[in-house]
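Can you make up a protein sequence with its backbone structure tokens?

===
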Amino acid sequence: MREKIYDTTAHPAAAPVQRDLLFVASNWTSPSFDIWEEESGDHFYNRLVQRRALIVGSSFASRMGDQQTSKILKTAADALSGTIGSFWDVQRNLIMYENGPVLYNKTSYIDVAVVLGVLHGYAGDGIFGYTDDRVLATAHQIATSFIPVYGVANTTHDSNGAVLGIPVG
């Protein structure tokens, strides 16, 4: 079974895991499309999810007895980790969802893709985790940005008096 899911050398047409992980390790620096498939660029969501894939993949490769691939994946994950902080904009107190020219045509620098990136890409190692002050500041801005736009966002209690959360879309 190992060969059929992992060993690209022995089963190049049928073993996607190793091949796909090595692709991520070799291409994470290239622009990619955002989660909404609208814009090509360097996206926080993609980088964080790629980072998690490389970290988990390195561990998996090691368990498969493939130390060479494990090392390649770990090296790529370390390099990617060194860039992920560039998405933090201290002036805006916000994790930018994208680095590059896409932002120049936007009216807002916020996107729920950042929160989704943390939910899908957090590797459990403290880098952009759920309680990171930068993540919380960004989530707060995303949530409160809807209050002046949609009247329903100002409804704080339901008909039974239970507290309602802020709708986010």
The chain has a mean pLDDT of 90.
